[in-house]
Design a protein that fits this description.
four-stranded antiparallel sheet, two-stranded antiparallel sheet, mainly beta, 6 strands
């Protein structure tokens, strides 16, 4: 069995001022595909791959905002790409 999926997920973070630097989240599109193979009457093997396309984003902090020792001014941008590979074996008793 072949599997294919596409999704669009909007970030709950409204702008760069509210975006945490330790979690560079932004709107994303996910493209995934995989396969399932029945190895035996009781065993199944699933493999999959997913790539996340995240919108480029940034983070901005004003002086005094943050947790010590990370207080101060911050302004920057980032580009994020995520690749995920999965492998699963299922055995029914």
């Amino acid at each position: 069995m072949l599997k294919l999926g596409v999704s669009y997920d909007r970030t709950p973070v409204p702008d760069a001022l509210h975006r945490p630097t330790f979690l560079p989240d932004n709107d994303r599109i996910a493209l995934a595909f995989g396969a399932k193979h029945q190895l035996s009457k009781a065993g199944t093997l699933d493999v999959g791959y997913e790539h996340l396309f995240l919108s480029d984003g940034g983070a901005s902090r004003n002086k005094g905002v943050g947790v010590a020792p990370f207080q101060g001014n911050l302004s920057g941008s980032y580009k994020v790409q995520v690749n995920m590979v999965s492998l699963q074996y299922t055995h029914a008793f």
